[in-house]
Write a structure and sequence with these properties.
The protein is an alpha/beta fold and 277 residues long. The protein is built from 16 helices and six strands.
Length: 277
């Protein structure tokens, strides 16, 4: 890199930080059939930093599927691999061309901004680590740039998300414009209902309404887990009693703040800490 990491964490604007979900943002150009988007990508990042008056820009990126999640849930995101296997050779080549340009773009971004990327680690976990250590790293208020609603698990009074797909912001103040549950209930709702996009199974027979009823009666996902078995004649409660380990697994898969450092790995966490020293 042209200069060290700490030099890249300063710039004009107020002490605030924009965190880019790099691959997620790149799909903006993939959907347009573009394979020459490097310059446009950089201009977009710079424009976002100006729009939110952020002095700090940090690029985060997946590098393969999460080793941590695949270890505790082997079928994690298997649906995406299955879908890729069904593509035509022409479609596979288009993906290869896209990822070649994405790698070129990451390299160019690395000359301008900090890039955090580790094998077998997802951007979600790196972003969670940055949010969790916001004060330690001196990052100020944070804007997360991603269309991935999982990143909403990171929102608090000093952290918000902007989606380039919907062109909408999700903040503490407008949370209920996007969700019928509270921020505290959101993670437990996901644990009970699962995540089809990531191929994470929910508890059989439990959708959002039943999940919310359980949360409001027993507490969060771990409170529900600790209450099992629940005495009930209802089939979905009986299924819940039989699915305690699934509920616990889902919590470990989805609670980004609690498990991000495990997902990143101790060596990689140490590397991030060194870069901020």
């Amino acid at each position: 890199m042209a200069f060290n990491f700490s030099d890249k964490i300063t710039g004009s604007g107020r002490n605030a930080t924009i965190v880019i979900d790099a691959l997620n943002l790149a799909f903006r150009w993939k959907h347009q059939g573009r394979t020459d988007f490097c310059d446009d990508y950089i201009r977009t990042v710079e424009s976002l930093a100006r729009s939110y008056d952020c002095s700090n820009v940090i690029i985060t990126s997946d590098q393969g599927s999460s080793s941590y999640r695949r270890e505790i849930c082997p079928e994690y995101k298997q649906n995406r691999k299955d879908k890729y296997a069904e593509q035509t050779e022409e479609e596979k080549q288009a993906f290869a061309d896209f990822f070649e340009e994405f790698e070129n773009t990451l390299e160019a971004l690395g000359d301008l901004f900090p890039v955090l990327r580790y094998q077998g680690v997802e951007a979600d976990d790196i972003a969670a680590h940055l949010v969790k250590n916001r004060k330690r790293y001196g990052l100020g208020d944070m804007w997360l740039i991603s269309s991935d609603r999982d990143w909403d698990l990171l929102i608090d009074e000093r952290v918000a998300r902007f989606s380039y797909v919907t062109r909408k912001e999700v903040t503490v103040d407008n949370w209920h414009e996007h969700y019928e549950v509270t921020r505290e209930e959101y993670i437990s709702l996901k644990c009970l209902t699962g995540d089809k996009g990531d191929n994470v199974a929910g508890i059989p027979g439990i959708g959002p309404k039943r999940a919310l009823d359980l949360i409001r009666e027993y507490g969060d996902a771990m409170d529900i887990y600790n209450s099992l078995p629940i005495n009930s004649k209802y089939k979905h409660i009986q299924a819940l009693n039989d699915s305690g380990e699934q509920l616990l697994t889902n919590y470990q898969l989805m609670d980004l703040i609690t498990y991000c450092d495990y997902a990143i790995g101790s060596d990689n966490v140490a590397d991030i800490l060194r870069k901020f020293d």
